[in-house]
Write a structure and sequence with these properties.
It catalyses: ATP + H2O = AMP + diphosphate + H(+). The protein is mainly α. It is about 70% helix and about 0% strand.
């Protein structure tokens, strides 16, 4: 049962982060808390953290500004959840998390909080950030510190950027395109002679080169693929809508008919009418 002071704080809508911390403490109470929240571990809530981060990105992509505060709140709750579990284990608490990120921001922005000039381009600042980051971590290898849990395409780009900083990179985009064609040919030629594991490896090589092409073209491959997914969804939904108006479903249509509707959907989409 909550003590009166904690209950007042939990129901005080103006209490900000202190209220959120009190709510999490109550949820994690071993006797009076929520059984689901009490059961969770660092590992078990990791998938939810990833999901909440993507929901933030989705709201921004859709410019759903009225939804964004709620999505950011869900993501903040994940941080509070981890901090509470760490505090229970005697490792660190929420204040340690805040102090850590504040110290990092001050340390990595000497041109704002120190005596360095801030007369530099965003590109130069990004390069300086990476240099400071590497120095702080004391990385022994070039590729150390690229998080394993990143989406595969994003991690591929980060690995390639690290290698490029020490000169391991194709100087021209055309060389990446040549490699892309080579990997594509190898995949097609080997499809009847390789087993599933070897095929997956060849396909992975092809995807890695695609990530490299995106990097050379200064395209975020994750964002580009999200946009392609959204475009496919819009156009396929149009196919369903057209067929539904005729009392049918895609399963009751033919590929040729759906291709014709797709072409119409494509034209509508390009005209901004989907």
């Amino acid at each position: 049962m909550q003590n009166p002071a904690q209950a007042d704080l939990i129901h005080d809508r103006s209490a900000g982060v202190a209220r959120l911390l009190a709510i999490m403490e109550a949820l994690r109470h071993p006797v009076h808390g929520c059984p689901w929240d009490v059961k969770q571990t660092f590992t078990s809530i990791t998938p939810y953290t990833i999901e909440e981060a993507y929901e933030v990105v989705d709201a921004i992509t859709r410019e759903a500004w009225d939804e964004l505060p709620g999505e950011l709140g869900d993501l903040l709750l994940q941080v509070v959840f981890y901090a509470r579990m760490a505090e229970e284990a005697g490792r660190f608490d929420f204040d340690t998390v805040v102090q850590s990120v504040c110290d990092k921001m001050v340390s990595r922005h000497p041109h704002v909080f120190g005596d360095q000039s801030n007369d530099k381009s965003p590109e130069q600042q990004k390069a300086d950030w990476e240099t400071l980051k590497a120095a702080e971590r004391g990385e022994a290898r070039v590729l150390d510190g690229v998080a394993q849990g990143l989406p595969a395409l994003t991690r591929a780009v980060k690995l390639q950027n690290r290698a490029a900083r020490v000169g391991f990179d194709w100087p021209e985009t055309v060389q990446v395109l040549d490699k892309l064609l080579e990997e594509s040919r190898e995949l097609v030629e080997a499809k009847d002679s390789l087993g599933p594991q070897e095929m997956a490896e060849e396909f992975g090589d092809l995807m890695f080169v695609m990530a490299n092409l995106a990097r050379h073209l200064k395209i975020d491959p994750e964002a580009a693929l999200r946009a392609a997914n959204a475009k496919f969804t819009r156009r396929f939904n149009h196919i369903e809508d057209v067929l539904k108006a005729d009392g049918r479903s895609p399963a009751e249509s033919t590929l040729a008919e759906m291709d014709r509707i797709w072409d119409a959907a494509k034209a509508l989409d390009k005209a901004g009418k989907l």
